[in-house]
Amino acid sequence: xxxxxxxxxxxPRTRGPIPHGQLNQVAPTTLQEExxxxxxxxxxxxxxxxxxxYPEARAIHLAPEFGTGPADAFIKNSREFAHxxxxxxxxxxxxxxxxxxxxxxxxxxxVPHPIQNxxxxxxxxxxxxxxxxxxxxxxxxxxxRGRVPE
Length: 150
Fold this sequence. Notes:
With 150 residues, this protein is α+β, with helices and mostly antiparallel strands.
């Protein structure tokens, strides 16, 4: 079963629904870039423009031969399953199974998008937090690949 620790401190302020993002407690640029490099290095992932009205976001998509997940494992009937917002924001949107969305929300790591099937995940503020955010992102990747969480 997927588990994560509670996120320390108060939740960041957010805006939205369009664009939906984080307004404070922004992840340091070095951590954003490390997370982006990890995201784009996953097997079967390719970088392409996002399908949401936030053109500065950097999106990852999954090649069809790697991604056999359900339709809601992808954003807007595309191959995109996650994107990282620009540096002034640093949060991410990703698709997640409903059980994982609930865990992420209850542990204080993000909130569901108010009108789309994605979860806003707050950007990591430190080295410990990047590991939690990465574990959540891997849940999105597995979902897009058609792997059911235990």
